[in-house]
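User: Ni/Fe hydrogenase formation protein, Streptomyces amritsarensis:
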Amino acid sequence: MCLAVPGRVLDIGEKDGTRMATVDFGGVQKEVCLEYLPDLRVGEYAIVHVGFALQRLDEESARQTLALFEELGMLQEEFGDPWEQAAAQAGADSPWPFADGPYAGEAAAAQRVQDPYPYAQEEGRP
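Assistant: Predicted structure for Ni/Fe hydrogenase formation protein:
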């Protein structure tokens, strides 16, 4: 799911000729484009979607929305690590997606670099 999330502008600068800001989303900070809201200032809140600030928002509305998203677990869904989320949904205990495969474990890390496709032979690939 892709949400429009309220965030507070922490600082404003320019990157490659584009007005950008660091925006805080209840503890998660992201870089956001301000081209649609050129008069947005540090300390103000905006609704952000796919990296673009789209609409100015008052502080109380922003805080209420962030609290609701947090309660519903939507902030973790939106800003969490997608690999971690996929592993959790699959019921995996290990961060490495092939924990039971031929190159699992710390000792096999070098082998994974040498042979990044350990399942190719099992799948009939050369």
